Amino acid sequence: MAVPHWLPDRFTLLLVATVTLASLLPATGVAAALFEYATVAMVALLFFLHGAKLSRQAIVAGLTHWRLHLLVVASTFALFPLLGWALRPLLAPLVTPELYMGVLFLCTLPATVQSAIAFTAVARGNMAAAICSASASTLLGIFITPVLVELVLPHVGSAQQDLWGSIGSIMAQLMLPFVLGQLSRRWSAPLMARHGAALKFVDQGAVLLVVYTAFSAAVAGGLWAMLPLSSLAGLLLVCAVILAAALVGTTVLARRLGFSKEDEITIVFCGSKKSLMSGVPMAKVLFASQAAGMVVLPLMVFHQMQLMVCAVLAQRYARRPQ
Questions:
Q1: E strand segments, the chain
Q2: Other Cβ atoms closer than 10 A to 89
Q3: Rounded distance, CA 48 to CA 38, Å?
Q4: Is 124 helix (H, G, I), strand (E, B) or coil?
Q5: Cα–Cα distance, 139 to 136 (Å, whole number)
Q6: pTM for the full model?
Q7: Which positions, given as ranges, span the membrane (predicted)?
Q8: Is the pLDDT score of 77 beyond 90?
């Protein structure tokens, strides 16, 4: 059944339902342990399928545009953390300290893959560069995000682990399945082409499972008792300010540096977005279970906000003359 146009998309509704379920019926005890194991397996399958889906030809085709990729990486891993840090005196009073910790974690994450490429396609941008740049951002995030968490969230990031232990855990859970997926392309790519819908199911299923597990642990630790309604309203404003600053910053930089309109579109959509698919599993590795639910809440809000805003932007770009 189609979702009415005045409602958010189906996946957003499922996220809201998952958080509600975790709030009313959190997994505890043996059930929580089973959900933890299921989460690790589902995320590994997700990244295996992404590795199997990504064409090596697409990677090679986009690698030559190094100036564009350098700007996207700088926006993702330098501009965003600087925004989170520089705007902290202004934005932090609007939310709880724990929520702003989640905002800073959001700023350290890699870019999205599917939605960045999809919006670039709608806006008639540089598709080959978008595929390469968004995919490279995900892989670089495995190494860069733990380092940035250590820098912007000292004494909080990498809870219960050292830096190298965190990177090793993320590589084992995300990078290794991705590489195995790439190595299996000879056999798995034809299956992926015939059953592309399965990847979307695993994408969304993995995120919903991780969100339920993280929020269950947070609710058991008293999440909602510690989160006033005013902070939720403040979080919307915080995410809006950071997203607006990132969109304006990437657009201005692309134009000042003389990129074509097609390249500008790719820079804006790949350099201003943050990945829910990568961020939620990373939060489970980098933060204690009780903190992960609070940490991913800003990411969930930002994710929906970036989808709505970028959908409007993509349509505006698409209306330009051929």
A1: none
A2: 8
A3: 15
A4: coil
A5: 5
A6: 0.73
A7: 37-54, 66-87, 99-122, 129-151, 163-184, 205-226, 232-254, 282-302
A8: yes
